[in-house]
Design a protein that fits this description.
about 180 residues; single chain; mainly alpha; 10 helices
Protein backbone atom coordinates (compact mmCIF):
# COMPACT_ATOMS: atom_id res chain seq x y z
CA UNK A 1 0.00 0.00 0.00
CA UNK A 2 1.51 3.32 -1.06
CA UNK A 3 1.36 6.63 0.82
CA UNK A 4 -1.16 7.84 -1.81
CA UNK A 5 -3.33 4.78 -1.14
CA UNK A 6 -3.17 5.37 2.61
CA UNK A 7 -4.09 9.05 2.21
CA UNK A 8 -6.99 8.09 -0.07
CA UNK A 9 -8.28 5.51 2.43
CA UNK A 10 -7.97 7.87 5.41
CA UNK A 11 -9.93 10.49 3.46
CA UNK A 12 -12.53 7.88 2.49
CA UNK A 13 -12.83 6.78 6.14
CA UNK A 14 -13.22 10.39 7.27
CA UNK A 15 -15.91 11.01 4.63
CA UNK A 16 -17.77 7.92 5.86
CA UNK A 17 -17.62 9.01 9.50
CA UNK A 18 -18.69 12.60 8.91
CA UNK A 19 -21.17 12.36 6.03
CA UNK A 20 -23.74 15.10 6.45
CA UNK A 21 -27.30 15.41 5.24
CA UNK A 22 -28.09 15.76 1.57
CA UNK A 23 -28.30 19.37 0.43
CA UNK A 24 -31.21 20.82 -1.51
CA UNK A 25 -29.03 20.83 -4.62
CA UNK A 26 -28.12 17.17 -4.14
CA UNK A 27 -31.77 16.23 -3.66
CA UNK A 28 -32.69 18.15 -6.82
CA UNK A 29 -30.05 16.31 -8.85
CA UNK A 30 -31.26 12.94 -7.54
CA UNK A 31 -34.85 13.81 -8.45
CA UNK A 32 -33.83 14.99 -11.93
CA UNK A 33 -31.79 11.90 -12.80
CA UNK A 34 -33.57 9.04 -11.05
CA UNK A 35 -37.08 7.68 -11.42
CA UNK A 36 -39.11 7.36 -8.24
CA UNK A 37 -38.22 3.62 -8.01
CA UNK A 38 -34.54 4.39 -8.50
CA UNK A 39 -34.72 7.14 -5.88
CA UNK A 40 -36.03 4.58 -3.39
CA UNK A 41 -32.97 2.44 -4.09
CA UNK A 42 -30.62 5.39 -3.71
CA UNK A 43 -32.19 6.36 -0.40
CA UNK A 44 -31.53 2.84 0.94
CA UNK A 45 -27.78 3.54 0.75
CA UNK A 46 -26.09 4.69 3.93
CA UNK A 47 -25.53 8.46 4.02
CA UNK A 48 -21.79 8.03 3.45
CA UNK A 49 -22.47 5.87 0.37
CA UNK A 50 -24.99 8.42 -0.93
CA UNK A 51 -22.36 11.13 -0.58
CA UNK A 52 -19.77 8.91 -2.29
CA UNK A 53 -22.13 8.31 -5.23
CA UNK A 54 -22.83 12.03 -5.48
CA UNK A 55 -19.08 12.77 -5.54
CA UNK A 56 -18.67 10.21 -8.34
CA UNK A 57 -21.53 11.92 -10.21
CA UNK A 58 -20.00 15.39 -9.72
CA UNK A 59 -16.62 14.17 -10.99
CA UNK A 60 -18.27 12.87 -14.17
CA UNK A 61 -20.27 16.05 -14.69
CA UNK A 62 -17.16 18.19 -14.08
CA UNK A 63 -15.39 16.12 -16.77
CA UNK A 64 -18.16 16.97 -19.22
CA UNK A 65 -19.98 13.64 -19.19
CA UNK A 66 -23.63 13.90 -20.22
CA UNK A 67 -24.68 10.28 -20.79
CA UNK A 68 -27.79 9.79 -18.67
CA UNK A 69 -27.02 6.06 -18.41
CA UNK A 70 -23.58 6.83 -17.00
CA UNK A 71 -24.87 9.48 -14.59
CA UNK A 72 -27.60 7.18 -13.26
CA UNK A 73 -25.02 4.39 -12.88
CA UNK A 74 -22.82 6.79 -10.89
CA UNK A 75 -25.63 7.29 -8.39
CA UNK A 76 -26.64 3.63 -8.21
CA UNK A 77 -23.38 1.70 -8.67
CA UNK A 78 -23.18 0.62 -5.01
CA UNK A 79 -26.85 -0.13 -4.34
CA UNK A 80 -26.14 -3.85 -4.16
CA UNK A 81 -24.46 -3.19 -0.82
CA UNK A 82 -27.90 -2.54 0.66
CA UNK A 83 -28.77 -6.26 0.37
CA UNK A 84 -26.31 -7.02 3.16
CA UNK A 85 -25.11 -3.73 4.68
CA UNK A 86 -21.63 -3.49 6.14
CA UNK A 87 -20.65 -1.33 9.06
CA UNK A 88 -17.62 0.89 8.75
CA UNK A 89 -15.31 -1.59 10.50
CA UNK A 90 -16.30 -4.36 8.10
CA UNK A 91 -15.49 -2.04 5.19
CA UNK A 92 -12.11 -1.30 6.76
CA UNK A 93 -11.52 -5.07 7.11
CA UNK A 94 -12.19 -5.54 3.38
CA UNK A 95 -9.80 -2.73 2.40
CA UNK A 96 -7.04 -4.02 4.67
CA UNK A 97 -7.61 -7.60 3.56
CA UNK A 98 -7.34 -6.64 -0.11
CA UNK A 99 -4.19 -4.61 0.58
CA UNK A 100 -2.32 -7.14 2.71
CA UNK A 101 -3.84 -10.57 1.95
CA UNK A 102 -5.11 -10.46 -1.65
CA UNK A 103 -4.74 -14.21 -2.25
CA UNK A 104 -6.74 -15.03 0.88
CA UNK A 105 -9.42 -12.50 -0.08
CA UNK A 106 -9.99 -14.35 -3.35
CA UNK A 107 -10.98 -17.41 -1.29
CA UNK A 108 -12.89 -15.49 1.37
CA UNK A 109 -15.10 -13.67 -1.13
CA UNK A 110 -16.44 -16.92 -2.59
CA UNK A 111 -17.63 -18.46 0.68
CA UNK A 112 -20.93 -18.35 2.51
CA UNK A 113 -21.86 -14.89 3.75
CA UNK A 114 -23.22 -16.12 7.09
CA UNK A 115 -19.89 -15.87 8.90
CA UNK A 116 -16.91 -13.55 9.35
CA UNK A 117 -16.25 -13.70 5.58
CA UNK A 118 -19.52 -11.90 4.81
CA UNK A 119 -17.87 -8.49 4.20
CA UNK A 120 -15.67 -10.03 1.49
CA UNK A 121 -18.64 -11.76 -0.14
CA UNK A 122 -20.62 -8.49 -0.13
CA UNK A 123 -17.68 -6.55 -1.59
CA UNK A 124 -17.33 -9.07 -4.42
CA UNK A 125 -21.03 -9.68 -5.11
CA UNK A 126 -22.60 -6.22 -4.70
CA UNK A 127 -22.19 -5.25 -8.39
CA UNK A 128 -24.31 -8.23 -9.50
CA UNK A 129 -26.87 -7.58 -6.76
CA UNK A 130 -26.98 -3.92 -7.73
CA UNK A 131 -27.57 -4.75 -11.39
CA UNK A 132 -30.48 -6.99 -10.40
CA UNK A 133 -31.96 -4.25 -8.23
CA UNK A 134 -31.51 -1.63 -10.98
CA UNK A 135 -33.27 -3.92 -13.44
CA UNK A 136 -36.22 -4.24 -11.05
CA UNK A 137 -36.28 -0.43 -10.72
CA UNK A 138 -36.52 0.02 -14.49
CA UNK A 139 -32.97 1.16 -15.27
CA UNK A 140 -31.78 1.06 -18.88
CA UNK A 141 -29.79 -1.96 -20.13
CA UNK A 142 -26.64 0.19 -20.39
CA UNK A 143 -27.01 1.50 -16.83
CA UNK A 144 -27.53 -2.05 -15.58
CA UNK A 145 -24.41 -3.24 -17.43
CA UNK A 146 -22.32 -0.39 -15.99
CA UNK A 147 -23.46 -1.22 -12.46
CA UNK A 148 -22.84 -4.95 -12.95
CA UNK A 149 -19.36 -4.35 -14.38
CA UNK A 150 -18.20 -1.41 -12.22
CA UNK A 151 -15.50 -3.45 -10.48
CA UNK A 152 -14.48 -5.46 -13.53
CA UNK A 153 -10.85 -5.34 -14.61
CA UNK A 154 -10.92 -3.76 -18.08
CA UNK A 155 -8.50 -4.76 -20.77
CA UNK A 156 -7.32 -1.91 -22.93
CA UNK A 157 -7.90 -2.09 -26.65
CA UNK A 158 -7.81 0.41 -29.47
CA UNK A 159 -11.49 0.36 -30.39
CA UNK A 160 -13.48 0.38 -27.20
CA UNK A 161 -17.23 -0.09 -27.44
CA UNK A 162 -19.26 2.72 -25.90
CA UNK A 163 -20.12 0.59 -22.87
CA UNK A 164 -16.43 0.03 -22.09
CA UNK A 165 -15.64 3.72 -22.60
CA UNK A 166 -18.39 4.72 -20.15
CA UNK A 167 -17.37 1.96 -17.74
CA UNK A 168 -13.80 3.25 -17.72
CA UNK A 169 -15.11 6.75 -16.92
CA UNK A 170 -17.27 5.37 -14.08
CA UNK A 171 -14.35 3.40 -12.64
CA UNK A 172 -12.00 6.38 -12.79
CA UNK A 173 -14.53 8.64 -11.07
CA UNK A 174 -15.21 5.94 -8.46
CA UNK A 175 -11.48 5.56 -7.72
CA UNK A 176 -11.15 9.32 -7.28
CA UNK A 177 -13.91 9.38 -4.69
Amino acid sequence: MTITDIFYRVNQFSNALFAGSLSLDENRIIQELLTSEQQKLFLRLERSEQKHSLRVLRTLIDEGETSRDLLVAALLHDIGKTRSPLNIWERVLVVLGKAFFPEYVKRWETNDQDNWRRPFVVAKTHPQWGAEMALEAGASPLTIALIRRHQEQLKTNFQEPMEDRLLKKLQEADRKN
